[in-house]
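Recall the central idea of this unit: under ordinary conditions, the amino acid sequence of a chain determines the structure it adopts. In this exercise we apply that idea directly, starting from the sequence alone.
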Amino acid sequence: MNWKKLKRQYSIICEKAKLNKDYSKEWKEFKKLANIEAKNPSPAVSAIHNALKKIEKLKKRDKIYIFDHGCGSGLKVVYLATLGYTNIHGVNVNDDVDHINKILLNNFKINK
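Accordingly, the structure predicted from this sequence is:
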């Protein structure tokens, strides 16, 4: 249930980013929802969380590299960045991703 709320909140943020509108209020709510989701992951991200828990036993979070091929809306990339992962790379060839890059730059100083 929480993932659906997170996804809905992200959609609002994306629409506002596309229109160059302020989404700071929505961003605060997104971060809150992301932290709730991380404590009790839904099926949409439970496999990712399980894999990352295993990897974190061997490596520090800042040494983990995540590659999301076909990242679509970028939701999981932004979600993981919100949780503190810094080496995240999302690739999608079918959609306009300028607004996602804007969100990543504004909130995480990720510019590539």
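The mean pLDDT is 92.
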